[in-house]
Amino acid sequence: MNKFFNWFFFFTSIRSLGAATILVYVKDDFGWPWGYGICSCAVAIGLAVFLSGTTRYRFKKLVGSPLTQIAAVFVAAWRNRLAADPSMLIDGGEYEKKEKEKQELPHTKQFRTKAALPKQVFRPQPAIKDPNGSNMVNKWRTSTLTDVEEVKLVIRMLPIWATTVMYWTIYIQMCTFSASQATTMKRHICKSFRIPAASLNVFFVCSSLLTVPVYDWIVVPITRKSLNSPQGLTPLQRLGVGLVLSILSMVAAALTEVKRLRVARSHGLTDDPTTTVVPLSVFWLIPQFFFAGSGQTFIYNGQLDFFLKECPPGMTSMSTGLFLSSISLGFFLSSILTIVHKVTGDRRPWLADNLNQGRLYNFYWLLAILGVSNFFLFLVGAKRYLYKEKTLSKEGIESEEGEHDCHV
């Protein structure tokens, strides 16, 4: 599973590299219609390959919406509002008939269990007819212990999920302000060739591409021996490494911006509205792109691995939802720059239209400080987190993780 996610990310990064190099060249030299035409053909080919494999896919029968289950557990907990003895809680199949059996989960002491009624106080609820004509207990009044424990698993993941949002807020700066920095710097490799502005993210993508084989071929073997872990770094450890690298990217970006502004001042370009290009090589931006790109490899793979493995077997669709929602929230939080612009004022704003007249480095320092605070919150959540596999093994229950692998 770990190897799959690493190389899946590797090939998606190759896609990004092709878009930032080949397609940019085609658009600049042959026109935008050619660029859009190539993209359309690529999507059509991908769709054909996807459809050709549908007969080989293994589909799991749906057991209902995870969001409905979460809502039902909370509603049942509110209706019951009593402390239940764990030994007397309703088990996964005593009172509720399900179309498909779920993996039985042991009762955990984390969070109080009120949704599953104790057996001795269980009273027959209005019967509901299922499609087969059998009676079912109203899930909005009584939840099974397994349903409750599955919701607990999701709740336990939320602090980790929340701390990964900060990385994507930092990531988007590589596509916005770091790219703006690059457009104000010398982009010539030689006299006859200048790196196109749209291709500057190639530094970011290349660092991601380099990190995958280095991690898979060097880091994993070393950590397997040193940490006595068959998978190398655990998902939480990978997330931690990714967060640290994102902080380093903001530190590098701030220091590079300080250097860039010093060069601009020394050449008298800060007050010149007609000249914004600073005589400083764009390769000074490589460290911040490198740290952010390497961090993406650890965050991207770590999130997918963590959410897929830790989500309950009956709620695996939540894994993708949690991953994508962290990205979207990270992008949304980047709107903090509008608040920064209003607070810093118009005289010496941090984020100016002309970067030579702004103080972008302060914005980078702010993100670095927020990243450090977020990292400490992550450490607290990670230290308290108990992997689902360990919880099940304590009770002598075998995890259904192998089944997950078949259905990815």
TrEMBL record:
It comes from the Eukaryota. GO terms for cellular component: membrane. It is a multi-pass membrane protein. InterPro entries: MFS_trans_sf, POT_fam. Keywords: Membrane, Transmembrane, Transmembrane helix. The chain crosses the membrane at residues 7-26, 32-50, 193-215, 235-255, 322-343, 363-382. Signal peptide: none annotated. Its main location: membrane. SUPFAM superfamilies: MFS general substrate transporter (SSF103473). It is found in: Membrane. GO terms for molecular function: transmembrane transporter activity. Belongs to the major facilitator superfamily. Phosphate:H(+) symporter (TC 2.A.1.9) family. This is Nitrate transporter 1.1. It comes from Rhododendron simsii (Sims's rhododendron).
